[in-house]
Amino acid sequence: MFRGKEISFLLFSLLLFISSIIISHGIKNIGTKNGNYITVKGLSEREILSTSSSWELRYRLTGDTINDINKENNLSLSKIKSFFLKHGFSEDHIKMGFMEFHEENYKESLYKYRAHISLTVNTKNIEKMEAAEKNIAELYNQGILISNSGGPRYYFDNINDIKPEMLADSIKNAKLAALEFTKHSSSKLGKIKNANQGYFEFLPIDRSLGDQERYPKKILRIVTTVSYYLD
Prior knowledge:
Blueprint (H helix, E strand, L loop, with lengths): L3 H31 L2 E13 L2 E12 L2 H21 L7 E10 L9 E11 L2 H9 L2 H5 L4 E2 L5 E3 L3 H25 L5 E8 L4 E4 L12 E14 L1
Antiparallel strand pairs: 1-9, 2-4, 2-5, 2-6, 3-4, 7-9, 8-9
């Protein structure tokens, strides 16, 4: 009969043998599943036209009294509204912003008070906004001292309408890139391991132009990263 120590040794050896088989099988599966895949990127771009626009205008006034400033502001505001009404806007499109007063403390100052006023013009009619921007010199010629105006900002509000189509297109292009790789690597494309859709980005038509919000036409871009198993 086997002694207790011998039985324990045999059981331990058997368990060790079984464990080695399980571990070996697991390592083999892990190597097949995770060790042989390719990561590719798929690009999708669309040229789009903005659907809304906003223009913040700031102008400067001077006067010896606050009452003088208010009178000048009423006159300036009337001229600005007339300008935009002439270009097809309504008064509902024009919203007053802030008014800041500053008292001049320098002897060389011609006026005691200086004020900065802002207003915002909003519209979904891009052509009207472009026409107004083109003719903004009319306000300068009327004595409106516009400052700190970078021009209108243009936005695209319908991104959710084209997101699914562009995302599908970027995934399709990623798969085409992966298939092209398999042609030259003697491998077969398998299932998707994982995917990252990235983020949607607006760009100017001409990449050298800078801030895309300054232009009605722009590029909407998405890059999707996909990993495929290789069989």
